[in-house]
Amino acid sequence: MSPADAPHYTGHRSRLRGRLARDPSSLADYELLELFLAQVLPRRDTKPLAKALLARFGGLPGVFAAPEERLLELDGFGPALAAHWTLIRELWARLSETPLRSREVLSDPDEVVRAARARFGRSASEEFWVALLDAKNRVLAWERVSRGTVDQTAVYPREVLALALKHHALGLILVHNHPGGDPAPSEPDILLTAQLARAAKDLGLRVLDHLIVTEDRHASLQELGLLGRG
User: Fold this and answer.
1) What is the rounded distance in angstroms from the CA atom of residue 77 to the CA atom of residue 41?
2) What gap in Å lies between CA 137 and CA 114, rounded to an integer?
3) Suppose 58 and one of 62, 174, 180, 227 were both cysteines; which one would form an S-S bond, judging by CB atoms 3.0 to 4.6 Å apart?
């Protein structure tokens, strides 16, 4: 194909890549998204789709956290892009989970909050995870216990405690999300925490906190004085 026959967007895309190499911060959000989309759609002008995604979801964070079914509603967003989105989100979640997967000493509960938010903070359904710690607060494991619906997930204390015993943990930090956006603990959250704390104590284990995360906020039952209530 001669330069004259090349699609109109090839020169534009080449210029974007040049700017990316020289100064990535100079690119607008839609331009970065154009180049990202072009990794999967190299033979399409990706600017319209980039702008449509940003308009629909309100910015890059919303674009990359959007549920697959809503992404697929956009004209031009097909299964190949959906797979690419899943890949980038999984990479981001694992990078955020690094402190929880490398046996580091957990010095700040916010590290758990950040990992949880990256992994499932924007999920449309509730998920319940647990960080299992040793006597020195090193993370032994970070595992999902259950996944439920938009407003509840079934959690059985015996499953949580079985994970703790399996990994020879002494401390537990419980974590789940509230898809509705309000991190305030519900009465069932408080009762479950108390039940788990009592059962853990009988086995010589400690529930250190129960964190509830949303897209941009979180609540700590320990900070609220609710860890042993119920």
Assistant:
1) 10
2) 17
3) 62
pLDDT at 155: 86
**Is the distance from CB of 97 to CB of 118 less than 8 angstroms?**
yes
**pTM, two decimal places:** 0.75
Please name the CATH architecture into which domain 105-220 falls: 3-Layer(aba) Sandwich (3.40)
The domains of the chain are located at 3-94, 105-220
- Closest by alpha carbon to 74, among 62, 61, 57? 57
Q: Which of the 8 DSSP states describes residue 185? A: P
**How far apart are the two ends of the chain, measured CA to CA in Å?**
73
Q: Tell me: the pLDDT tens digits for 162-189?
A: 999 999 999 999 999 998 889 999 999 9
Question: What does pLDDT average to over the chain?
Answer: 88
Q: Which residue has the tokens 């990706």?
A: 46
Q: Parallel, antiparallel, or unpaired: how do β-strands 218-220 and 171-177 relate?
A: unpaired
Q: Is a pLDDT exceeding 80 seen at residue 10?
A: no
CA dist 161 and 165 (Å) reads 6
Q: What are phi and psi for residue 148, nearest 5 degrees?
A: -125, -135
Among 82, 78, 75, residue whose Cα is nearest residue 52:
75
How many C-beta atoms lie closer than 10 Å to residue 193's C-beta? 22
Strand partners for 157: none
Encode pLDDT of 49-88 as tens digits.
999 999 999 999 889 888 889 999 999 999 999 999 999 9
* Cα 115 from Cα 206, distance rounded (Å): 21
Cα–Cα distance for residue pair 177/149, rounded to 1 Å:
11
